[in-house]
Every structure is written in structure tokens, then in C-alpha cells.
Design brief:
Two copies of one chain form a homodimer. Helices cover 26% and strands 34% of the residues of chain A. Chain A is α+β, with helices and mostly antiparallel strands. In chain A, helix 1 packs antiparallel against helix 9 and helix 2 crosses helix 8.
Chain lengths: 344, 344
């Protein structure tokens, strides 16, 4: 009874937020000032599409396959490899008839062979139609935590070390700058990050399906045993990681299962396609699902800035998780949840 | 059982916020820039004490009793009159053995006679000691909603029409500028407002006892029948306003009754005394209790700026009220609660 009351209170909250905000992002035809950005985006915690934010980067011209291949030479890099392009996602394993939070297989290879893999896979796509129908694995460079300075130092000079108006608005430098290179086969499942995120697309386009923190209750977060893809003769096996439970969101906004996840019907997605040359401001704690498309793969660079932990928004998310997942859904405690899960 | 779980979840939330923030306000030794103000105060929703914010106002020199008397001539003004200095507060009525939300008696008088009343009452205080022991009524000019332009147009030129760096930070002009004149007998009970509040003290000092929005659950908000003070031979009677119920906070942070309001023990007040020449930034939705002291009364001017309703903070407060007051405490719905209650 009381659980139903709690659910009703949250539904009312979700709708109130939706009524006050709608689902249209703010669009800047030119980069905002630090004050505008803080006032219109960061403070209200609202997404924005920003044009002309990095027109001056040499990377716009330089980052051809040839240039990248030349720059990276035969330096070994870490690549996420999956049978289906779904790294860090809740996945059903027919063998054990169980759902796992599955992490990708990480493979060391030269940039050269990464490009070859990407090329052949997109070749297959052209022949076989939809990305998912491809039989070869999906390869994705998606390293976080300052991977750019660490592994991509040769490319650093081609972009800015930070987003000037964002650093000024937040009064700090980015925690991490991340480099992303993949193709249409790679999709990122719904999750959130405790970062203010400036996301620049340099090749191809990315489509973000966004849900505000207020819609947490619509997303049915739950904990799943962790597993990892391991290559096998057949292709890939799922190898469980004993004892590790990961809280994650099971809803796929592209094919929502309303029978299993009924509260998802209250969610109202904001859908933003970020094209080459455009930047997305993805506010902290917003849930995001990301897919991508591009003839020759998709390249992006994003800047993670620490969110403001003074704000009640952060502890509020903890409260909401306890009320929704623990009390309404009777889940075990989610406090082990790392809030700095991988991002895309 | 579930109610206890909800309460435990909120207690954890209250403590998490306290651990992340503490109870020391930010102090600016000179006015902040719009960007600093937005970044350090408005965005994190944290109070600040600001020095030198209105050193340039003519009012600092001009506003003597003589000047005010001269300026206001015998123009009639509205004055809040109460037997005890408690306007807009939950008050026990021995006659009916019931608690009411009591509003002040409003009296029209000349500024001259207001000053005379104030003088005699503070005279009594000197003779009789504590303010509360005074037997004569308390008089307080506390008009909101742009009362300054309306009733105090003669004084408008002595102050700024807005707080420049605040208007720039929020991208709007103040909704209202309010003038306050009272003495130590007048106290404002705990409440919140949906405004970003810049509060300037021009004579005497005001002490604010503040609680963040996250501590709503500690304050035991409840609904009370409304009543109003009406003068009588004996002094004042409480005249109920039939059918009107007002949600208000009963806890008096100066004399907390922990037996009746046990959750108040989890609250951690931020106490700020704002002296002549200083300004308080009181963030939207912060609960505040205000007392004042000054030989010749206390004069203040405050600027109300609309809060940002895009932010989840506003609907969150509605959610919290439903969960705490309606579900935990089993109160009737508080949705009739006007969030733009009078402010001090």
C-alpha cells in the first residue's frame, strides 16, 4: 500500500518536471559565454546543443585515417571488442538462462589493425544490411580517465586541452578528456555519470536518447551479476566475474519492454543527434543511451568536468535510489553502485 | 514498517548533504562578479554573507528617523501589529486549546505614529528587560510584493533598483523589492520562499537561522487552521478564518520541542548574523528563522528574484513534502500550500 503511495508521489514528480521543462534542448548557434552556459545549462541542469564550439581545432582537418595511422604508428592501443557492439550492458545469456552486466573483451592492437577491423566490419554492414546482422565482432576505442593524455598524446595538440567557457563557468579544469572511435555497431546502454560532459563529434554523428535525473524511477535500475566477454572458437563466451554485482539500467529505449519495465511509460526522452562539428552539453546525472552512424566510422572527443557535489542534486539521487530501488522494488542496497561508471 | 524505511532513507540523505557541505556560509569581503555569484552561491544553492554590496547607496547616510519622517510626511502606511511580535507563526490559543497559523492585524497609520510606537516599545524594553516581557504591541513594517515602489516611492531613489551582479547572474530583474522596519520584538518563524533573496541590512542587525531544503523532513511541516489577530479591550483576540488551512513549520529553532518534533534533532542550522552594511544571499527554498536587534530599530531592504523553475529542485520539494508529510506523517495533502508565503 505505502509502496504504491511512494510510486504515485514519484509519478507526480516526474510529470511536474516534464511540465516545467519539456524535451527540447537549448541550441546555441555559437559558443555561449561562461555566464550564459552556467545560467542556461549547468545551473538548471539542462542539455544543450552547441554549434561552432571547436571550429578552430586542427583535428577537424587533420584527423583522416591516414593521419591517425601515421601519428599512432604501430603504438599498441586498447580496444573494446564485443560480438554485438554492446559493451557495459545488461545481456541475457541463453547458456545459463540469466541476465548479466557484461563488460567487453579488451584487446591490445595497433591502430592500423583497429582501422582494418573497423573497415571490414563496415564493409560487411554494407553487404549484409543492418549493423546488428553483422557476424564479425564490433571494435570500439572508448578509453576514459584521461586516456587522451595517456594513450593519445600524439593527438593532443590537434584539439584544445579544455573547453574554455566551460572551465571558466565551472571554475576548474576537466577531470578527463576521452577519445572515441567506433562505428554504427557500437551502442552504449542507458546510464549516468557524475560529470558535466562536453561532447564533441569530429566524424559521423551520434544520437543521444536522454532522460533527466528525475526520471530515475522510470528506468527500473537493478543489480546484475557481472560477466565479461571472452573470445572462443565459437566467437565469444560470457565469463561470470564471481561475487561482483553491478547496478545498471535494463531498459532499452529503442525496444522498451513495457511488460517487464512498466514505469518506463512515464519517461519522456529528449532525443538529440549531434552531427560532425557540433557539441553536446550532457548535464551531470542525466541518463543517456548513445548510438552512432558514419560512413567511415565515428570519432568523438569529450571533456568530463566534476559535478558540483555541494548541490543537493547528488545526495538526492542517492535518496531516490533508496526509495525506488530498495523500498518500492525491494532491491538489495545499491550503495555499492559506483557512480563513475564508464561513459560514452 | 515502510514508513520507518522512508524515514531512514531521508535521515541518510540529510546526513549526506551535511557531510558534503557543513554549516559555514561563504563570505565575500567585496561583492562577487555575476559569474562568481552564480558559480559559488546560486548554482550550488548555498548561502553567502556579502560585504560592501551597497556602500554606494545614499540610504546609508540619509535614512535617519528625521529623514524618513520628513520623506513619508503623514502618508498612511500599513503596519503589521501583534501582541508578541510573532506574525505568520503557529500559535497556541488557550481559549480554544488549539494551535493556529496566526496572521498579524494590519493597521493604517502615519510613519510618524509608527516611529512613536516603535520608540515607546523599545523604551519599555529598556525598562523591563527582555523584549518578550513588553506589554505593548509589536509594530512591524513588512510589506512585500514590490511594496517599495508602491508605498515607499519617496525612498526608492536612495537605494539601487536591483543588485547588479545578481540581475546579471540570473538574467532577470527582481520580482519585488521589500522594505522592513521593526525592532527586537518582531521575529519571523521558520518558512521558505521560492525566491533567490538578496537581503541588505541598513540599520541594526538580523540573525538568520537557516536550514537547507534537504532538511525539510526535520521540520515537521503540518497544516493549521488560519486565524488573525484582532484588537480588543484586553489587547488582542485570535479570530479564526473559517475553512482556511495553512501548511506551516511549527518548530521554533530557539526553543525546540524535541518531544513533539523528534526529527528536528537531525537538523544542523547555519546561523548568520547580518550586520549594518552587510548583505545575505538567502538561496531559494532554504528555511529561515529571523530575529533582529538594534538600539533604534532595524531597517532592511531585500530583493526577491524568481528561482529557476527548470531546475529539479522545485518539483523535488513537492516530492519530499508528499513523502514526508503525507506518507510518513499521514498529513492531508499539502498541495494547497502556497510556496510564496510572506518572507522576512
Amino acid at each position: 500500500m505505502t509502496k504504491k503511495e511512494i510510486e504515485r508521489a514519484f509519478i507526480k514528480y516526474v510529470k511536474e518536471y516534464q511540465d516545467l521543462n519539456g524535451v527540447i534542448p537549448h541550441v546555441f548557434d555559437q559558443p555561449p559565454t561562461a555566464l550564459e552556459f552556467l545560467q542556461k545549462c549547468v545551473h538548471p541542469n539542462r542539455p544543450a546543443l552547441i554549434k561552432g564550439a571547436f571550429d578552430h581545432w586542427p583535428a577537424n582537418e587533420l584527423w583522416t585515417d591516414e593521419y591517425l595511422r601515421m601519428k599512432m604508428k604501430d603504438q599498441k592501443i586498447t580496444v573494446a571488442v564485443t560480438p554485438n557492439g554492446q559493451a557495459d550492458a545488461v545481456t541475457y545469456d541463453p547458456k545459463t538462462d540469466q541476465e548479466y552486466f557484461v563488460m567487453p573483451h579488451e584487446e591490445q592492437m595497433t591502430f592500423d589493425s583497429f582501422l582494418t577491423h573497423l573497415g571490414s566490419s563496415s564493409q560487411q554492414q554494407k553487404e549484409q544490411g543492418t549493423p546488428s546482422s553483422s557476424s564479425s565482432p564490433a571494435y570500439y576505442i572508448s578509453l576514459q580517465n584521461g586516456s587522451l593524455p595517456l594513450e593519445y598524446s600524439d593527438l593532443e595538440d590537434d584539439i584544445d586541452p579544455d573547453i574554455a567557457w566551460c572551465s571558466e563557468a565551472l571554475g576548474c579544469q576537466p577531470d578527463a578528456v576521452n577519445f572515441w572511435f567506433g562505428d554504427a555497431r557500437s551502442v552504449t546502454s542507458l546510464h549516468k555519470d557524475p560529470y558535466e560532459n562536453c561532447y564533441a563529434v569530429l566524424r559521423g554523428e551520434k544520437t543521444f536518447i536522454l532522460f533527466p535525473p528525475s526520471e530515475y524511477m522510470c528506468l527500473h535500475e537493478s543489480t546484475y551479476p557481472s560477466a565479461i566477454y571472452t573470445p572462443s572458437k565459437a566467437g565469444f563466451d560470457l565469463t561470470p566475474s564471481p561475487g561482483i554485482q553491478v547496478p545498471w539500467i535494463p531498459v532499452d529505449p529503442l525496444r522498451p519492454d513495457f511488460a517487464r519495465y512498466p514505469r518506463f511509460k512515464y519517461a519522456k526522452p529528449m532525443v538529440i543527434t549531434v552531427r560532425q562539428g557540433e557539441m553536446l552539453y550532457l548535464p551531470s546525472l542525466w541518463f543517456h543511451h548513445v548510438s552512432q552512424a558514419g560512413e567511415n566510422g565515428v570519432i568523438a572527443v569529450n571533456y568530463w568536468y566534476d559535478m558540483n557535489y555541494q548541490h543537493a542534486m547528488f545526495p538526492s539521487m542517492g535518496l531516490t535510489r533508496r526509495l525506488v530501488s530498495e523500498i518500492i522494488d525491494g532491491q538489495p542496497t545499491l550503495d555499492m553502485a559506483s557512480d563513475d561508471d564508464d561513459d560514452q
